[in-house]
Amino acid sequence: MRPVRMILFCIVVLGILLLALFAGPRMVNPFALTAMDREILYSIRMPRVVVAMLMGMALGASGAILQGVLRNPLADPYILGISSGASLCAALGLLSGFYFFGSLSVPLTAFIGAALVSVLVGAFGWKRGGLWPERLLLAGIGLNFLFSAVLMLLMSVSSDEGLRRAVLWMFGDLSMADWSLIPSAAIFIVIGMGLVLSRSKALNAMILGDEFAHSLGFAVQRERLILFVAMALMTSASVSLGGTIGFIGLLMPHIVRFLLGADSHLLVPASAVAGGAFLCFADLVGRSLMPPMELPSGTVTAVFGAPYFLYLLRRKDVLSI
Amino acid sequence: MITADKILNIILRRLHQKGELHPVRKFELIQILSAFICVKILLFLITFSPPVLAAEPLPIPTRIISLSPATTEVLFALGLGDRIVGVTSFCDHPPKAKKKAKIGGMSNPSLEAIVELKPDIVVMTTDGNPREVDDRLRSMSLKTYVWTARTLAELPEGIRELAGAMGTKESGEKLAREMEEGIKKFRNQKPGARSRKKVLYIVWPEPLLVAGPDTAIHDAMTLLGLENVAVHARSSYPRYSIEELIRSSPDVLIIGKGAGMDIRTVSQGILKKLASVPAVQNGKVCYVSDNLYRLAPRVIQGIEELAACVR
Lengths: 321, 311
Known about the structure:
Largest sheet of chain A: 2 strands, antiparallel
Largest interface: A-B, 34 and 32 residues
Structural class of chain B: alpha/beta
CATH architecture of the largest domain in chain B: 3-Layer(aba) Sandwich
Radius of gyration of chain A: 20 Å
Oligomer: heterodimer
Strand order of the largest sheet of chain B: 3-2-1-4-5
Number of strands of chain A: 2
Mean pLDDT of chain A: 86
CATH topology of chain A: ABC transporter involved in vitamin B12 uptake, BtuC
């Protein structure tokens, strides 16, 4: 592979993590922590960095899987309607007065919504004993439109200010990150990650086409189902952690492909790590650019990521999934 | 040039001629008559119209539409509630405002709905209504009144001006006086510079939105001699950094009433994170009503609540 690039990649990721923890509009000196610094570090920044890392990893890996499974460079974890379904479910939960779990109610309803939509998309994509990429994609797009439209309808009809703000929360917010959600979300993401990493070979084969994968001895339908489940678990967990954050799921796998190649053994974990590090970076920029105001990380990711992606695109001759 | 007398002479001469008028003549007559009327109107406009128009008193608007919740409250406070025919869907105070016809939101009012209500005047603000709405309404020759007051200090003058345009000078003067006296009362109670307390007004806890400068809340704090911790933010209701909140260690946290959900439940999460902040440690977390969200007469009650919180 490309050892120099790999080492560079690791250094950059580590550097970003350290920066995200200690830098910002106000520096925290790790060698001389005051009581306030310690509090800010442990209860504000660390959960924030961990949530950003987890979300970015889940999105980056999901994007890489989905682009391979659907054999489509435009696939991203949100295209299947998982995020809009989660938003809709959270909004409906709030409207019906579901607030038993305090500040955990929105993430919880969002996760339930995301899981339900994943099952629904899977059901629509299921025919003749298996999942079919085109069906999955079209079902996802259809559901996505439906859920977004219903959500917009709810927002324009309801004058409930709380609902509006809950929907705002769905548009990516890391500032409220807190330890309470991290363990359960991490479990789902780790399971998803484990599933994909054990199926890298199959994913590599499937990118070349079903017949090819079949001739190599892979049970295509079974592998596809496992990968789909892994993707759904990770995306749902990430949506419930901090809402929807664009760009990473769609473009991070492409950037990693440009830099490190398209072998799924490397691509999936590298997309995950790069996604996580990039979201940490975006969050750092978002809170440092105009203090004491904070910019939403979702927009920062795109503003910084898209130009870099376009630059790489110009330089590259041959594109691959 | 044709003068009126000349034309009159010609007409009289023609009319004195016996028998039916020749078609050509008839046409000529009509031409002359219309020319005469035109000249008359011109003369009238040039010589008489300016003094006549100026002498006529401004018509008192009887069908008012208000395009912002704040102006709706001011209009009701001026006793014009019966003349209001339309309000936005956000106008919820006083309770009677909810029963008025709705014309849509502040930033996207329905022009059709406004026109259908046949208003004499549409009251709008520079704070929340887009300029284009004003332009469109004017182009449909609807009268608009633009409310420009944005700070507490500008409120009394704004009330006077609006009352003048609505033809209720006396009640405007009375209400403006009340406001001025209320404000003055609080100004006199201002504590010394040494006891300036640091305050943060939380509008919504998740994501954290606070009251920045350029808000009635900020003006009220300044009036009471309080220091708004979020004064450096660059917008009215910025998304604020929790880190910054902890560092600035406010003495009092004020949490405004949110619509829909119970704000106390929603605030639990953030208060847990702010355990080390003096305000939370000393139990100086105060839940207030929405009186200060709009620049309208009830800000005085809002300032009262704020003063009670920091006392």
